[in-house]
Amino acid sequence: MTTLDRVAKPKTKRSKRFLQSREPKLTENVKNAMIIKGGNTSETVTNALKDIEFFSKKSDCSLFLFGSHNKKRPNNFVFGRMFDYHVLDMIELGIEKFVSLKEIKVNASCPEGTKPLLVFAGDAFDTIGEYARLRSILIDFFRGPTVSAIRLAGLEHILHFTALDGKIYMRSYRVLLKKSGCRTPRIELEEMGPSFDFILRRTHLASDDLYKTAHKQPKALKPKNKKNVSHNVFGTKFGRLHMQKQNLDKLQTRKMKGLRKRGGDVMQGEDAVSPKKSRDE
Amino acid sequence: MAPSSSIEEVLAKAERDEAEKLQSIRVEKELELEFDVGNLLALDKNAPDLRDFRAQKKEDFLRSLARDNAQLLINEIWKVPTDRLDGVVVAKLPDPVTRLPREKPVPKPKPPTKWEEFAKLKGIQKRKKTNLVWDDVHKEWRRRWGYKRAKDDTKDWVIEVPETSDPNEDQFAKRIQAKKERVAKNELNRLRNIARAHKLQLPGAGLAPTGQPSRSELAKAEQVAKLSTASVGRFQERLPKEKAPKNTGKRRKFQPNIGDFSTEKQKQLDLLKIMDGKKPRLDVTKAVNKQMREEDMENASRQRKGAGKKGRKGHFTGKGKGKGAGAAAGGKNRKPRKGLGKR
């Protein structure tokens, strides 16, 4: 939806700014998530998706987390994300075990809005397609805003996902930086909660085609490759120069007395000028 | 020798100390982890040991795994160049490497408007105008456009009536009307640009069709349509009851009023000669046609007499002869050559 597509023009500057903020951009906004609590009936579950798409357009949220519970699929989470206001992929996770923040008594939990460290462990996250996609969704959910710099002392929260034995263990720990004697600190972890034991249920993944379009990088953001510059294995930089042919006739060589222009030539030049002078007079 | 050995000892001790220190932050893994420091992200591709997992307490196993991975990630993050900002050590994170899907599609370039296309063709460039201009009336700098702008003609309380215009005309209303029309025109152009960008059919500014075309108008339109083919209607078939078009095709051609006098003079003289001459004029075409008809009739009468004897063969010869004669004489079926036609 570009500006041109809109036949009805925004009437005020404010609405224009608002619509512009919703337009596709080269570097995108941080993705927002909405978290929806489902009812018990299956009808709500089916209708929920429609609502999610509707609300995603209203509130400009491209991530959603839908929680529901029924007999067939008790304690159900649906993690999903949108592309262009349509569902790109969804993954259903069942909660097998849940320990909340309050249950784990820790004197200090980490402050809100800290950017967590994310660690995925297990070969499944690399080899199995659904798990790899789940990893991508979870990164999207939990990575927080992209920042250019981070305070090293502020790294105090870690989310650890382990794919093991057909289950996914999500644990969140508080990071304690201990002195190690060298610059890099030694890490100790303290369980903080919440922690989940998930089991993978149904999945609804985007087709490869759509997934590819969603990953398309704008041309403007791609780094321009520099012409005529190359690097070898050792990191040495090579450049190729293109030079025009040198004019050897005008090359300045060593000045010598014998090669100097003769005096007669100079005199002729003066003679040519003199009649003009006389005319002026 | 004693001092040198002591130096070696000191060095060895320092090395050992260093190794011990590193021991506390070193973690051994079968496969190296994949890091994306921009996202503070690590992927451990090693398969966790199931036997250990079942033997140990679950939580302890997970925590020790998490600790090792976290230590490796922290080691990686600490390698990033740091900076000191307001007394806080800040690590400059590189750009994230992990590709995640976009939220919305890549923005498309805006299609150029008609004016932009024209300006590009002519090489017209946008020139930036200053936002503020000097207002002579109020003696201050004011905005060029919008509210409280300089030289605001809507704020005039008196307008001079131009000499050429009607003295009773409302000049204020005229200005408002003109403004409204400009706005409407701009809006129309904007919509046309949208339509053009989407390749929609634009309502043309050509002749509008009349409400009730008359019979003659319809006939004319039909004729024009028939002729509007690549072969100028040559192979166009006629409808069963269609009449031939009237008053089409031939056009009278006149000699130029001023031109070659000698030919004109010759023509006039020839005409006078014919009118004045006693001798009957010979119309070659007419004469030839007459001759041919007579020959045909003669042949027909001869065939009727000898029909029983000769049969079909005789018919063929007779006809062939007639045709041959016709062709030699310029033919009945042929078009008259230029200048040979009836006058």
From TrEMBL, chain A:
GO cellular component terms listed in the entry, alphabetical order: nucleolus
Record-annotated Brix domain positions: 1-209
Segments passing through the bilayer: none
Molecular function via GO: rRNA binding
Record-linked InterPro entries: Brix, Rpf2
GO annotation (BP), single: maturation of LSU-rRNA from tricistronic rRNA transcript (SSU-rRNA, 5.8S rRNA, LSU-rRNA)
Stored Pfam families: Brix (PF04427)
Subcellular location as annotated: Nucleus, Nucleolus
SMART domains per record: Brix
Entry keyword set: Nucleus
Annotated region (Disordered), positions in chain: 253-281
Family: Belongs to the RPF2 family.
Name this polypeptide is given: Ribosome production factor 2 homolog
Species the sequence originates in: Paramormyrops kingsleyae
Lineage: Eukaryota, Metazoa, Chordata, Craniata, Vertebrata
UniProtKB/TrEMBL annotation, chain B:
Record's compositionally biased regions (Basic residues): 302-322, 332-343
Gene Ontology annotations of biological process type: endonucleolytic cleavage in ITS1 to separate SSU-rRNA from 5.8S rRNA and LSU-rRNA from tricistronic rRNA transcript (SSU-rRNA, 5.8S rRNA, LSU-rRNA); ribosomal large subunit biogenesis
Compartment annotation: Nucleus
Source taxon at top rank: Eukaryota
Cited Pfam families: RRS1
GO cellular component: nucleolus; preribosome, large subunit precursor
InterPro entries, per the entry: Ribosom_reg
UniProt biased composition (Basic and acidic residues): 235-245
Chain residue ranges for the region called Disordered: 229-262, 282-343
Keyword check for Nucleus: yes
Keywords on record: Nucleus, Ribosome biogenesis
Family: Belongs to the RRS1 family.
PANTHER family to which the protein is assigned, alphabetical: RIBOSOME BIOGENESIS REGULATORY PROTEIN, RIBOSOME BIOGENESIS REGULATORY PROTEIN HOMOLOG
Function: Involved in ribosomal large subunit assembly.
Protein name, entry field: Ribosome biogenesis regulatory protein
Lineage, opening ranks: Eukaryota, Metazoa, Chordata, Craniata, Vertebrata
